[in-house]
Amino acid sequence: LPSDSGHDEL
Amino acid sequence: MNIFRFLGDLSHLASIFILIHKIQTTRSCRGISFKTQAVYVAVFVTRYLDLFTTFVSVYNTSMKIFFIASSCYILYLMKVRFRPTNDPSIDTFRVEYLVGPCAVLALIFNYGYSVTEVLWSLSIFLESVAILPQLFMLQRTGEAETITTHYLAALGAYRALYIPNWIYRYFSEGYVDPISVTAGLVQTGLYLDFFYVYFTKVLQGQKFELPA
Fold first, then answer.
1. Which of B18, B100, B164, B170 is close enough to B4 for a disulfide, judged by CB 3.0 to 4.6 Å?
2. CA B82 – CA B27 distance, rounded (Å)
3. Residue B164 CB coordination number (10 Å)
4. What is the pLDDT of residues B14-69, one digit of tens each?
5. Per the CB < 8 Å rule, is B60 touching A2?
6. How close A9 gets to chain B, by Cα (Å)?
7. What angle do CA B7, B66, B176 make, to 5 degrees?
């Protein structure tokens, strides 16, 4: 899931 | 970071500067939906709670701070500085009809049952429909100042540019964020009508006017 690495988009 | 995302973010920045410039030079927030602007504050605050927990880059952190600060500043301009020019009687879209369903969606679709993840998800869904009070107001009055249409065009361009960014990221990193992509497609779709009038009228030098 994208949140594993945090949300890097604005 | 890729060129699409960077240009999208620049377009987002530009939209905010255009809006502030419009309010300050005309000394009026006529034609701007306070409800849309208030929802943006809610969007940025709920999404960027990770400002305190996750560090991505100096770019990322500065943009987050800028978006929160500038959106609050716009509310100040509308509610305090140029309050008499804000006409709530034409800003009649019922925001509660947006927040409710978005909250339900956020509880169903999220990347983890934590306060920050559910609020992040809520902010994504809320952003996708935040422009509706503004577009509704435009529809109701049937016209807009040219500078206001440039603001909306820049904001729409920001959303549109995120789509090639996601396509690029899918192929280059195998990265897919289904919540952002779904909400982003919906959000961009909301601008299609506006873009049609913007390209066929405003960019041809005519005033933004909707057919009666």
1. B164
2. 7
3. 15
4. 999 999 999 999 999 999 999 999 999 999 999 999 998 889 999 999 999 999 99
5. no
6. 8
7. 50
Q: Which long-range contacts (CB under 8 A, 24 or more apart) does B46-52 make?
A: B46/B119, B46/B120, B46/B122, B46/B123, B46/B126, B47/A7, B47/B119, B47/B120, B47/B123, B47/B124, B47/B127, B49/B116, B49/B119, B49/B120, B50/A6, B50/A7, B50/B116, B50/B120
**Domain layout of chain B by residue ranges:** 3-95+124-205
Closest-CA distance, A3 to chain B, in angstroms, reads 6
Q: End-to-end CA distance of chain B: give it in Å, rounded.
A: 44
| Reported ipTM | 0.86
B66 in Cβ contact with B123 (< 8 Å): no
The C-alpha R_g of chain B, in whole angstroms, comes to: 17
B185-195 pLDDT tens trace: 999 999 999 99
